[in-house]
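Incident log, structure service

09:12 report received: a user says their structure output differs between two submissions of the same chain.
09:20 pulled the input from the user's history:
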Amino acid sequence: MAGSVGAVVKASYSRGAAAALRLAKGHVRYAVHRCNEHGQHQYREVWDGVGRVGKQGAYARLDRVQPSDYVYRLILSPNPEHQDLGGRLDLRLWTQRIMAQLEQDLGRGVDWFAVSHDNPDHRHVHVVAVTQRRLEVGHLRSMRASGDREAAAQQRDQPRERGRRDHDHKTPTTGPRRGRERDMHGSPTRVGPSSRRDLSGGLG
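09:34 re-ran on a clean worker, output below:
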């Protein structure tokens, strides 16, 4: 959606045949090892709603996919200017909220894992998810709305969290001050041929 200031959800899927597994494992390899903006080879962590999964753990979970399953390759992207300015969004929590919304909408758990890409100009998350039914556009829209809500909630919490940290860092005074204290420099311190289909072309 042109001009969107919210999250973007992109999805493609394959069925659980050998070609689908090759695509999904290729997506994992790309997400884990893609070079950073300096061209340096990377090894990024694979994680899910509980904790660390690891690349080999992700492969093992994909090997259990059934031929009737739908294997989704998702890219979840917060808006870099309106939701993730300065890279302050907790991408893991944000992704977990989105996937929890999908599970709620489907009425069952979803086997998924993810890798974060911390590109300086556009952070996003690559997700592989296995479902027993095809996702509809409405599911993707609900995921996007969940991402928008979570981003807004984190933005509301950030000023309160900064205020608590500033309060905790203040040094209490224990007696009368006998003069104006200055530092030693005299200046203040300042405190994301199989039956592949792009469902949405990117919802955003």
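09:41 both user submissions now match this output. Likely a transient worker issue. Closing.
09:42 reviewer note: The domain at 8-160 is CATH 3.30.930 (BirA Bifunctional Protein; domain 2). Confidence is low (pLDDT under 50) at residues 171-198.
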